[in-house]
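Students often ask why inverse folding is considered easier than folding. One informal answer: many sequences map to the same fold, so there is more than one right answer. In these notes we will look at a single instance of the problem. The structure comes first.
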């Protein structure tokens, strides 16, 4: 298993997908077996800049967009803050 969980973030604005990103890892995840939200520092792929939500917000105007998050039931605090600051709305799927 290469990652703890596949997370997909799809950013939709005015009926069009403007970004779609995943949390895919380049190396096996070192957090396998850790509870959700713990041990991010153990794995480069799990670090905040590699979260699907954060990556989807990069280089786009997200104000008024909806970020649909698949594969997870919450966004971490840094991702939630980035979504709010971008002007997007989080929609958990």
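Output (designed amino acids):
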């Amino acid at each position: 298993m290469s990652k703890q969980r596949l997370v997909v973030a799809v950013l939709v604005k005015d009926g069009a997908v403007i970004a779609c990103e995943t949390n895919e890892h380049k190396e096996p995840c070192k957090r396998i077996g850790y509870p959700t939200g713990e041990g991010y520092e153990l794995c480069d792929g799990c670090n905040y800049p590699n979260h699907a939500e954060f990556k989807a917000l990069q280089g786009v105007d997200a104000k008024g967009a909806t970020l649909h998050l698949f594969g997870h039931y919450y966004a971490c605090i840094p991702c939630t803050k980035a979504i709010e600051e971008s002007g997007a709305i989080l929609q958990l799927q």
